Amino acid sequence: MKTHVAWMGLAASALMATSAFAQQDPSYFQGLHVGVGAEDRIVSVVSGFGGLTGKVSKESNAGVGVLSASYDQLVAPHWLVGGEVAEGLGGQRFTATASNGALTTKAQSDTVVSARAGYLFTPKTLIFGRVGYQWQDVSRDATVTNVSDTYWNKDARGALVGVGVEQALDSHIGVRGEFQSATLDHGLRDDTVRASANYKF
Which of 47, 84, 147, 184, by CA, is between 20 and 30 Å from 162? Predict the structure, then answer.
């Protein structure tokens, strides 16, 4: 009898929590959003790049702006899925060195297409994970030592993963913090910390 009463109590508590969650209306997290923010990006050379051989070392970080558009949908009282397109603005110059020379390169604007899934701990606080694909525009500005080319412009592409937290301030405005890491071809890795403000239509 006591066991049945305990289970009934747990079920009633879960029902009350779900009802209270619904009454608080997590509507900010449903629908179309646009965002503007800033990124601190670290571009690392993790393998041979642009004609360099042997161990290549260099990483460079720079702050750039970012614009985004996303659509999210609640699929259960606490669960959300969505998609996003984001464009990083600006770029950073760095010099990579190796046993056969060095070159100066600029990582320019980037585009990320991604999907995310998240859990609402409260109607206004979302914890989420992200998977996607990144296109990074890379140009070689100058070369030194034994690298013969003086200029090229290529896309570095690869898979991206991320984690983050988003906080609704009201039914239309929210703020987000996120870490993303992309493994790109041409021997590059792009690690990004992003902070943004978002508006829901």
Answer: 47
Buried b / exposed e over 122-155, threshold 16 CB at 10 Å, is: ebbbbebebebebbbbbebeebeeebeeeeeeee
Q: How far apart are CA 191 and CA 65, in angstroms?
A: 15
pLDDT at 45: 72
**Could you tell me if 125 and 167 are in contact, meaning their C-beta atoms sit under 8 angstroms apart?**
yes
**CA separation for the pair 1, 9 (Å, rounded):** 12
What element of type H or E holds 21?
helix 2-23
Which residue type sits at 12? A
What pLDDT digit, counting tens, does each position of 101-129 carry?
A: 666 777 777 899 999 999 999 999 999 99
3-state secondary structure of 191: strand
**DSSP symbols for 37-89:** EEEEEEEEE-S--TT--S--B-EEEEEEEEEEEEEEEEEETTEEEEEEEEEEE
- Phi then psi for residue 16, to 5 deg, are -65, -40
pTM exceeds 0.70: yes
CATH number belonging to domain 27-200:
2.40.160.20
